[in-house]
Backbone:
């Protein structure tokens, strides 16, 4: 166990190092002078030279790279060109809506997908099973921004059940801000429930085919008890894995959904950063999100280890 | 549809593939959409760029089957021309990411020394959420259809690479590969002529799904305004343009949205069908 943990931590460090390297070189992929690109066509040669010096672009690439790595390890991801503030500070200022949007939509997705997925597996081949699988596939095929626009139009604009957009303004109370996240979370929750539903159904199907379920049934245990005490308990374990898997999906979905509902979160920030050519912010977002992904997947693997006594490394 | 299959194997494969009616239907629908878009210059009712002030936001009807947009341009014609770009990007990404993914995966699976570094690189690439990495890449490469294909191929190639590596590790241990090596066949030739044909099934299945994901991702990028230049109509840019008129002209986002959803759904169904038909061992319920 301890050696497994050590191995995983070293593996994680290597992957995060590569993530930093990729994020560093992506910006250098740009054809031409990055400084001129960031400033746009109106900038003078002096402006570009000044920015080059400010960003350290006038130094050899190896020096830039080592400096970048050193700063990143210390938590310094550079300075935003647009906001003139440290990237970490800019990102933290936009984190609240994104974190809550992701958590709410994950909760909604689990509430929709886990009971239906389990029930569909239990009644395999039934109408409900077929219908749930088809709906899940449909939900995974519809672009999330389209679902968002449709629900925004009908549920918010026409029926007035939800705020149509925004985050309640700068002085809004916490609950008012959360109220603005309800409809976006439902949209993102529906989109993400598709993957979780298929996953839950498959894992429940595996478990219902296990010997111990047959044993439980053959010793005359009531059906309700078989399902509730034996099957459901074990089917709950793979859901941990799904949470790790859906993280990437949640972030991608959040970028688009925040744009649809005009929520000032990290997703909206990164799209604005692209339009403003604020490369340090794009780079910083890539690093933070990818590192979180690696970390969450390590944690879900460890949680698996704690919950499922059969898994040994 | 009436083509006679040339070999019994092929006949069996087609039987298996189309044994599920949903897969058959999906293939017909997708082929019809692709054919209509391909023949857009001949079948489109109007010039997709012709503007008409008097026709602004006309509801769907006899003159404009699917309505007219804010510039009075015919939505049906634009939908057909946009489909060429949207489907083309999806197909391009599926092809390019497969080629790159196969190269990386074969090298990682075949050369022990390269396996560690390449696998870690693939892990790191897969840590970036697809839309986010694509946004970053397109913002740097510039928003043309070719650059969007390159960016999305960089995003999806690691998925192919991972599958190719895993399959290569299994195949390379089999006696026929050993025999070929012993007979003096060069390593590149063993990789391409002996290993690759035996691992092609999972690659085709994955490429079909990547086709679908790439179409969704391209639509997302165009919707965000950071994808293909808005002057080129794609289904994603059409939704983005129609968004401002959500209250007056719902049909402007309804039809391109449906076009994306139907095509992606058809591709996912075909992908599922291919997986079941090509490799029965993979035919699981997930």
Residues:
């Amino acid at each position: 166990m301890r050696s497994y943990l050590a191995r995983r931590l070293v593996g994680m460090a290597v992957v995060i190092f590569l993530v930093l390297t990729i994020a560093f070189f992506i910006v250098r992929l740009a054809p031409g002078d990055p400084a001129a690109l960031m400033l746009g066509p109106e900038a003078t040669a002096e402006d570009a030279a000044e920015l080059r010096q400010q960003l350290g672009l006038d130094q050899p690439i190896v020096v830039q790279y080592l400096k970048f790595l050193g700063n990143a390890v210390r938590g310094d991801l550079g300075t935003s060109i647009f906001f003139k503030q440290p990237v970490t500070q800019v990102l933290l200022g936009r984190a609240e809506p994104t974190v809550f949007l992701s958590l709410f939509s994950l909760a909604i997705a689990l509430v929709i997908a886990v009971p239906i997925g389990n029930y569909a597996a239990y009644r395999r081949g039934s109408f409900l099973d077929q219908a749930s699988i088809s709906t899940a596939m449909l939900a995974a095929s519809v672009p999330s921004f389209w679902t968002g626009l449709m629900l925004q139009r009908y549920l918010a604009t026409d029926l007035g059940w939800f705020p149509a957009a925004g985050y309640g303004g700068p002085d809004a109370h916490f609950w008012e801000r959360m109220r603005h996240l309800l409809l976006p979370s439902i949209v993102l929750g529906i989109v993400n429930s598709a993957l979780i539903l298929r996953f839950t159904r498959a894992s429940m199907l595996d478990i219902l085919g296990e010997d111990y379920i047959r044993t439980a049934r053959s010793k005359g245990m009531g059906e309700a008890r078989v399902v509730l005490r034996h099957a459901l308990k074990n089917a709950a374990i793979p859901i941990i894995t799904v949470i790790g898997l859906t993280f990437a999906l949640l972030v991608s979905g959040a970028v688009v959904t925040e744009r649809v509902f005009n929520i000032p979160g990290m997703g909206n920030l990164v799209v604005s950063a692209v339009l403003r050519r604020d490369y340090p912010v794009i780079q910083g977002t890539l690093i933070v999100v990818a590192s979180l992904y690696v970390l969450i997947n390590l944690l879900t693997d460890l949680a698996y280890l704690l919950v499922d006594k059969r898994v040994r490394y | 549809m009436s083509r006679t299959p040339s070999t019994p194997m092929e006949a069996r494969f087609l039987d298996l593939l189309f044994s599920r009616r949903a897969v058959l239907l999906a293939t017909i629908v997708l082929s019809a959409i692709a054919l209509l878009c391909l023949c857009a210059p001949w079948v489109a009712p109007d010039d997709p760029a012709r503007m008409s002030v008097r026709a602004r936001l006309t509801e769907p009807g006899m003159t404009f089957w699917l309505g007219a947009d804010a510039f009075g341009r015919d939505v049906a014609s634009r939908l057909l021309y946009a489909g060429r770009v949207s489907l083309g990007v999806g197909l391009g990404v599926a092809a390019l990411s497969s080629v790159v993914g196969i190269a990386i995966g074969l090298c990682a699976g075949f050369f022990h020394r390269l396996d560690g570094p390449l696998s870690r690189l693939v892990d790191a690439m897969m840590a970036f959420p697809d839309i986010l990495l694509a946004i970053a890449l397109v913002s740097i490469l510039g928003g043309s259809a070719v650059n969007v294909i390159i960016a999305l191929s960089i995003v999806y190639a690691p998925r192919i690479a991972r599958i190719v590596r895993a399959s290569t590790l299994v195949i390379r241990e089999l006696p026929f590969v050993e025999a070929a090596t012993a007979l003096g066949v060069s390593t590149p030739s063993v990789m391409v002529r002996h290993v690759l044909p035996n691992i092609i099934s999972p690659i085709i299945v994955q490429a079909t799904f990547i086709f679908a994901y790439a179409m969704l991702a391209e639509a997302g990028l165009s919707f965000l305004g950071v994808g293909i230049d808005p002057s080129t109509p794609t289904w994603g840019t059409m939704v983005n343009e129609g968004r401002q008129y959500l209250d007056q002209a719902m049909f402007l986002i309804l039809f391109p949205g449906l076009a994306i959803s139907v095509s992606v759904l058809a591709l996912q169904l075909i992908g599922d069908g291919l997986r079941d038909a090509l490799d029965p061992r993979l035919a699981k319920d997930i």
User: Anything to note?
Assistant: Chain B touches chain A at residues 120-121, 123-125, 127-133, 135-141, 212, 216, 219-220, 223-226, 236, 239, 243, 246-247, 250, 253, 257, 260-262, 264-265, 268-269, 284-286 (CB under 8 Å). Chain B is about 70% helix and 0% strand.
